[in-house]
Give the backbone structure.
Amino acid sequence: MSKPPIIRFENVTKAFGKVIAVDDVTLDIPEGEFFALLGPSGCGKTSLLRLLAGFETPTQGRILIDGDDVSRVPPNRRPVNMVFQNYAVFPHMSVAQNVGYGLKVDGVAADERAARVADALALVKLEGLGARTPEQLSGGQRQRVALARALIKRPRVLLLDEPLSALDARLRDAMRAELTQLQQKIGITFVMVTHDQHEALAMACRCGVMDQGRLQQVATPNDLYEYPTSRFVADFIGQVNLFESRVEADLPDHAIVTARDLDLPVWIDHGVNAAPGTAVCLALRPEKIELHKRGDETALAPRVGSPSGYNQAAGTIRHINYLGSTSTYDVELASGRMVTALRSNLTRRGREDFALGEAVWLAWHAASPVVLPA
Amino acid sequence: MNGPLDYLGRWPLRLWLGVVGLFLYAPLAILVIFSFNDSKRTFIWRGFTTRWYTVLFNDTELLMAFGNSLTIALISTLISLVLGTLVALLLWRFRFPGKAGVEGLLALPIVVPEICLGVAFLVFFSAVLPWPTDLAWPLNLGVIIIAHVSFSFSFVALVVRARLASFDRDLAEAARDLGASEAQIFRDIMLPHLRPGLVAGGLLAFTLSLDDFVITFFTSGPDTVTFPVKVYAMVRFSVTPEVNAASTVLIVLTAGLTALALKLQSSETAKKAG
């Protein structure tokens, strides 16, 4: 990237008394990106957003926007604007007054203000509602007001704090798509905080996963899901089966790992850069585990990309969770360990293919397991 | 569904309503009625007249007392509003050592018996800080105004503080995020939210000041008589319909002010809704 990033966190730490909310975060966000901060509640993601907005000042480190150190710049002098979680629409002002407020305090002349308010309302599809009061609006419309009010200031970065959490499910899906389209249309950098991984994966160009104040991993949604670098990320994003394991052999083109709860060793189709004997954690996503009837064991090996005697486990179906498009199967292994496998319901009677209590084979491709530090 | 008035079919509730009405409003009604009584003795009806109002409006001493009362009420209300709001903001916004103490002190003027406050002010202004007696109007009212502010600003502070509790701090942050300065946030975001509290607190301070007798009695001098003190002096000789008339004017005035404040409030809400 030749262009300097629009946002740069340099070793930023924020402590509230003894509580460290943000712990030594270093992060670059390039211009025009839709960046999502994801993590469980209390992980520090909201503090990081508030540091960016200027409501908090870092205890240590620097925050740069467009190359300027803004660590001590108050929120009203930063080129960023925020959409609050509860929208914080001013209740005693009309929609137009709300949207125009940021221009009014900047001393923009009334006629220019009116024109820009109209543009901003059109951008968020609220044409003609300028005279309404906030209490006459639905939750979704109120959010659009908050969006227009922030965008009218033409910020370099738009901050969104849990933008969809207060909307009902159907509206949330629609708004998800709309926010993404809006971001692409106006090209402003968006930084969104969310605890909802689906939201983050579906909307963001890149996500940062936070835990206990630390940035655990920054990656594209796809990489975050398929190539997590830590147990926490593997576990936090989506569903996963984790196995305490040990490296048996590590070669350039494959590795062999044994897991405590699996009878057969696991064949991995790449090297893992770990000496034999190293304790590791093996992560296996439910949808990457195939379910097979007992009796066709011989057909398994070539299909899963490993020699026979690897990457499979015998078990018994203990629980079936029917979800409509898919079903999850909780399978008990010989070791007593429960493993979750997910299967699309490809035909209308697909669910009946496997029955509760049925003995099955689990199998997975050599490219599927992720080897993580223990 | 039963409306509240449907319960009036039951006789105990009717009786209750009657008793409440009798003791709450009948004295006021009688006071007003007898201000039109064509008799020097108050309690026997001799026919309708408005001459007591003429007498009233020619009684320079009473009018002056009335003027004093209104002036004191107005000035002490304005000072109480500013002071009370500032204290409420201080307690709402900041955490500081001794905050609990400040909150306790704030409630003190409300719980301390008025008679004690009156004596305290009397002693204070005669022994510690003698107020010059030969000042021009309205500076000669200073002692009373200070005394009134000292108890009514507590009420304002409590009312405004209660209103502040429902203020959404995100609104202030949102305004700040949009570029507003602290002063602009206060003017554009907080003040509109506080307005009902300010109106209520102001009305409270105004009426408290207007009808205060005990504290004023101890702090007023011969030239600074207020309306309640004057009425008390008149009643000591005899209750004439003139006193009734004066009281009626006061009732109409305060009721009118309250109605006006309520109307202003509701028209504001109506404007917002429509």
